[in-house]
Task: structure prediction
Amino acid sequence: MRAIRRTRYGGPEVLTVEETVEAPLEPDRVRLSVRAASLNPFEWHHQRGLPLLMRPSSGWRAPRDRGLGVDVAGVVAEVGDEVEGFAVGDEVFGIARGALAERADARAELLAIKPPATTFEEAAAVPLAGLTALQALRDQGRMREGFSVLVLGASGGVGHYAVQLARSLGASRIVGSCSARNRDLVLSLGADTVLDYARGEVEALEERFDVVLDIAGGAPVSFLRRRIVPGGRVVLVGGPGDGLLLGPAARIFGGLLASRMRPEHVVGVNARVNGPDLHALAALLTSGELRSVLHRRVPLEETAQALAEVEAGHVPGKIVVVP
Result:
C-alpha cells in the first residue's frame, strides 16, 4: 500500500509517499481501507518534532513512528479477533494510526459508524477538531443553555465546528472573529455577529461573554479576561506555535498561572480522544446540527504542500487527503 512516511523531523521535504508492507493486524484493532484523512496542526507539529516537549513520546532525534495522520474515514477491511461491533464493509470514521495512507489500523473504541448522508471527506474532517471544539465548550467552558459565546478564529478547523456546537449546546448569542472573506461562512454556521480581526474589530469589542474560546491565539490573555462576565471562562485552544520548547502550550501555561491570582477563570484544552464523544459528534452529523466545511481535497502526493498550507494558517474549514 502507499503511505506518507518520514525518517527525520523537518519541513515538507521530509514527507514522501512510499510503498509499504502491512504488519499483521493486532487483535484489538480494525483495519480500514482509507477513503479520506484530514490535516490538523497536530500533523505539522509531528512532522517538525516541535515543540520539543513532545519528543519524549514521539522520539528525540527521529520519529519513532514513520507514519503520520490521525483523522480518518473509510471502509472496514479486516477485524481483529478481539473486536466486537464492527464487520467488514462497515463505513466508519474516527482516529487511526498512520491515517495518511491507503490503509490504516484503528482501535475499535475510537471508531464510529459514518452517517449515511455524510461523505467520507466530510466525516474524516471531524474527529480531532470536532473533539477539541466539543470538549472546549462543554467541559472546559462549562457551556450551558442561554450562554453567550465569543469564538476567536471561527472559520478554521476547530472554530467552524465550535460555532455550530455552541448553537447545538444552546448558546443564546454567538460572536465569531475571522477575516472578511470568511464572514458569510461563519454567519451560515450559526454566528449572530462576525468581527473582522484585520480591521481591529476584536480589539474594539466591549461586550462580555459567558465563554470566550480563543483558537486564533492572537489576543493577549489580559484582554480576553476582560471580555468575560463574572464567573465566565476563557478557554485557550491555540496560540503562536514557534516556541521551541513548549510551542502553543507556553501561552496556555502562562494564562493558567496568571488566572490563579485572579477571579477570572482561564483554562486550556487538549482533546481527549474517546468513543462516547465521537459517537456524540456522529449523532450531530446525522441530525444536521453539525457539518464539515472543506477547503479543498488533495491526493496523497500533495500532502506535504497541503500541510504547509495548514501550518501557515488561515485555512477556512479543513483540508482532506484522498488516497
About this structure: The first helix runs from residue 41 to 48. The two ends are 10 Å apart (CA to CA). The chain has a mean pLDDT of 92.
